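Figure 6 in text form: structure in, sequence out.
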């Protein structure tokens, strides 16, 4: 199957077709999603949460993200691979943003990077695009700004709707090939999708965006405890794995494993 490229996402929108994106952080999971036909894989800085057990995305480093990113690239044949540039690795200047973006394409082999931010990040995105780095923009609720935004909150309610549209427009004008919206009212996301030429991706943004994304551990029931209301759980992997681990430990304790056929 031929590769999904950024131009194809644009074509999906033009043709009124939807596409799927899931996060991935390792080669095996990436290959499963790739073979299942998921068009885009996101090496999210949510790796800080789901892979490293941190409570925010802020502490993850470029070097850590590069390991996850390279692993996903190695597991993929068809999907477009996008990696998050982590907090602190791009905001200081367009030059810093270009240098970080180059590392993701050069050292990890990803096809694009995702940048969180409002209109203030437009010069950074413009510089990255000019350097040959495809950029997906992330607006609305941006987890790297969790402390500035006062926690996990829906963005763009009421008068703030205009701000989301403004940010999305600024990112498109700066050359972003796609705009992802997180936790914005469904009507606002619909308005933004209609106003933009580039495709949009939603998470907690209703059903009018061109694509949808979820964190795979949330989607497959790996995440412990409460998950956000925008998550739909498609499997209970935590239960499956827990049962298998319990059975293995029981077999070892009882002497049932290994059996004769497992020995040499
Ligand atoms: O890091 C991440 O997983 C993300 C998605 C939730 C959009 O940015
Ligand atoms: Na992210």
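Output sequence:
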């Amino acid at each position: 199957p031929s590769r999904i490229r950024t131009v194809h996402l644009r074509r999906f929108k033009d043709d009124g077709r939807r596409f799927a994106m899931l996060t991935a952080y390792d080669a095996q999971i990436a290959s499963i999603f790739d073979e299942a036909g998921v068009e885009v894989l996101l090496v999210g800085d949510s790796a800080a949460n789901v892979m490293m057990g941190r409570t925010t995305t802020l502490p993850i480093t470029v070097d850590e993200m590069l390991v996850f990113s390279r692993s996903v690239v190695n597991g993929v044949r068809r999907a477009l691979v996008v990696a998050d540039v982590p907090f602190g690795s791009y905001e200081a200047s367009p030059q810093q943003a270009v240098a970080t973006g180059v590392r993701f394409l050069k050292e990890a082999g990803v096809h694009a990077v995702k940048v969180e931010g409002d209109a203030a990040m437009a010069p950074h995105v413009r510089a990255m695009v000019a350097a040959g780095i495809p950029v997906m923009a992330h607006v609305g609720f941006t987890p790297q700004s969790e402390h500035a935004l006062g926690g996990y909150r829906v963005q763009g309610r009421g008068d703030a709707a205009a701000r989301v549209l403004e940010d999305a427009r600024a990112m498109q004008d700066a050359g972003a090939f796609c705009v992802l919206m997180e936790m914005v009212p469904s009507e606002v996301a619909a308005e933004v999708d209609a106003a933009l030429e580039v495709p949009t991706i939603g998470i907690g943004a209703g059903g009018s965006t061109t694509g949808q994304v979820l964190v795979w551990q949330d989607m497959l029931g790996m995440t412990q405890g409460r998950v956000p209301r925008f998550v739909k759980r498609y499997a209970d992997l935590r239960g499956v794995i827990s049962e298998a681990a319990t059975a293995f430990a029981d077999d070892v304790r009882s002497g049932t494993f290994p059996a004769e056929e497992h020995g040499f």
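Caption detail: The two ends are 41 Å apart (CA to CA).
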